[in-house]
Design brief:
Number of helices: 11
Helix content: over 70%
Order of helices and strands: HHHHHHHHHHH
Strand content: under 5%
Mean pLDDT: 81
Largest sheet: none
Number of strands: 0
Low-confidence stretches: 9-13, 15-29
Length: 234
């Protein structure tokens, strides 16, 4: 066998280093719960239209509040476009604000700005709970859909339990949103509705996603140990 010279050895070392650098790290593969919820920007962007609506409604009335919230949502979309960031979150938020504002305009009641969110929270709670009852926990279904790992988790009872717990946490979050918001809605507490929507929105979602991430890691670790998922490369 021909011995490897210094030049060839150096080339091999550079190739190995380049290959290692090109491989994604675990940190890159697994974003934090806040990242999954849209990051700090996502939290701020979701709060601004609501804050604009509540403040404008208290100062100048419903019409001004509707215009203010719509303009803020539009400004966020434009800002993301200028920065060449993904428009999907901004467009989704702007669409939601426009629909909520339209309902509030139609009914003539400022509190109806929050009506869609209230009933969407109830629907989310019911959906997450039902998914556990039919043994297809949504936390697992959504995680599998985004990672392409399939449904191998269904073959392991403990993995199923992990995802059941995460899904029930998400159901509890959505249920808590509904109960608090509906109570404030019935009490005509518009300002408190805005505060509740902000405080129980992205912050609670980040907590829920943190639990989902725990369930996914625990399940993947167990499935790898059982040989149902390929082991992590050294």
């Amino acid at each position: 066998m021909k011995p490897t010279g210094p030049q060839e050895a150096a080339t091999d070392m550079r190739t190995a280093q380049a290959t290692q650098a090109a491989q994604p790290t675990d940190h890159q593969k697994q974003p934090s719960a806040l990242d999954r919820a849209g990051g700090t920007k996502g939290l701020v962007y979701s709060a601004l239209p609501v804050a604009a609506f509540v403040v404008a409604n208290s100062l100048r009335g419903l019409r001004t509040a509707i215009i203010a919230s719509a303009l803020v949502a539009l400004a966020i979309a434009v800002e993301r476009l200028v920065r060449k960031e993904s428009l999907q979150p901004a467009l989704g938020g702007a669409f939601g604000v426009v629909i909520a504002a339209g309902i509030s305009w139609y009914t003539g009641s400022a509190k109806d700005f929050f009506l869609i969110g209230i009933w969407a929270s109830l629907a989310g709670a019911v959906l997450f709970l039902l998914s556990v009852l039919v043994r297809w926990p949504l936390a697992a279904v959504l995680y599998s859909a985004t990672t392409g790992k399939g449904t191998v988790w269904r073959s392991d009872k403990r993995s199923l339990l992990y995802y059941d717990i995460a899904t029930l946490v998400m159901a509890t979050i959505f249920g808590a949103r509904f109960v608090v918001s509906k109570w404030l809605y019935d009490a005509d507490e518009i300002g408190s509705l805005g505060i509740a929507k902000i405080m129980m929105g992205f912050p609670l979602l980040a907590v829920g996603l943190l639990v989902v991430a725990w369930a996914a890691r625990a399940s993947d670790k167990r499935l790898k140990a059982l040989g149902l998922l390929p082991a992590k490369r050294a």
